[in-house]
Write the structure tokens for this entry.
Amino acid sequence: MKNIFAYITHKNGVAEDSALEMAAAAKRINPDSQATAIIAGSGPDLDAVCNEMASSYKEAWKLENEAFAYPNAELIRKALINVLPKGEILLMPHDTFGMDLGPGLSIKLDAAFVADVVDFEGSDGDLMKIVRQEYSGMVSSHVNCDISSGAVANVRPGAFQPDESKSANGQVIDKSGEIGDISAKRKFIEIVEAEVGDVDITKSDVLVSIGRGIEDEDNIEIAQELADAIGAVVSCSRPIVDAKWLEKSRQVGTSGQTVKPKVYMALGISGSFQHLGGIKGSPFMVAINKNPKAPIFQVADVGVVADILDFIPGLTEKIEGA
Amino acid sequence: MEIFVCVKRVPDTSENEIEVNSDGTDIERDDLVYSVNEWDNYAVEEAIQIRDKVGGSVVVAAVGDEESEEVIRREMAMGVDKGVLLSDDIFEKADGKGIANILKAEIEKGSYDLILTGAQAEAGAAQVGGMLAAMLDIPYASLVNYIEVLDDKKLKVGREIEGGNQEMSEIDLPCVLSIQTGINEPRYVGIRGIRKVASMEIPVHGSGDLGLDDSTAGEAGAKVKRLNYFVPDLGEGAEILEGSDDEIIDKLIELLKAKGGVK
């Protein structure tokens, strides 16, 4: 049986939620597995995360280097090639860091690569069966992955119920001496923080959120009128910002704002996992979309199958008239 | 700057309802509207803007069947200098690594400073760019939403990371970048534009032209194989409101009021 490793991402001395989700994912691959966490970083923050992980993983491998203060995927790749045993399974979150690291690392390890895994359905010999989603979540697929020479699997954040048992009684093992040469052709300069817009969507209890279904910049008025009528703020999904129709600060999602409203109205939003990843606190969610198969209907509380451009003005009028 | 852009012809998810076919072997392909993968279109626009600023040329390549020619031609109409189709029956069912290997073979026939891909395509794997860079042994950055040419050896790039923040780095050329949507505003291509490039030749390179090994170039070399498509049973999902528009609106207002959604 293959050994399973999990690359842990962390911030300010705290592991990301994906750390315990991967502990659960490892058990889905093999219920008897004793996975190992790999944590790169520097200073007291790194020690804090290593100690935290030793309660959920059999071993927590510590990779300490000043250059890992900001984890550049190129540096981490070089270190992992030196540190990882050959032919094993490595999990990492399918977040912006995992997307940067996973595919190239799999080539250097001569291992198979599977991205954005939402479930594992065990393994049979050298074949690991996984579940993915395609076409923005409209359909799922089963995929067989040949793990005979190892595998790198990027796991979707939020897809696995975290293993909170903290019963691993593991130990921290310092592997910093095995990091090797990590000179890089890509050098981190700085993080540019997102600009703060005129409206703070994270402060509103009710959001009227628009997606592709709004079709045209001029139609945003329809959503704004509804928002005005119910005392809400207009937010949006990624395509609206890409089209420059609304400011980036209005975008809900992993690459935008994380919101925690009481009521979330998703108008013409298909519901990609990146968008849903920005909605926390289980709001009452209303989805209005003309495509009955839109993934948003799987997570919403109430749905209306309709073209928002036809439906919303009538809704607004009725609320205003009430 | 010599720039190579990888593009893909995909079913347009904003134009189609994607459904699984009756035996789960594929999606229902009848009447699908295809287009260029959205991310790739931003990559092509970015390449053209860089070329127009610092000189050089832009080559666009797609791995696919002959239908992919229309997508290449559409991108050429944006102002690309040359298009090439990488096509061979044996390429069918190649996995991500297989696709990266095909692109690598074409790239090594030329001399490029910058290779761009879209950040992801319809399968949402976001894998080919990173694999390609590792195979070519050159640096890589994913999810790029800003590019500034510093000199002929270096770029400054921004990556879109969580929370809408941007990670700025310097990266040596040659390199591979995967491009995130929103980096620019891709130019509109009309029928007239496509007509202008209608007579431009798009060479087709097969497995032999690229010097690939047929025993590993396609399905035979794939470590990752799709078994089927299915629609997951995700429980009840949303309660879908039925009735006339008036009835639905009344019900919805009632619910919104109960949940504090109308102030």
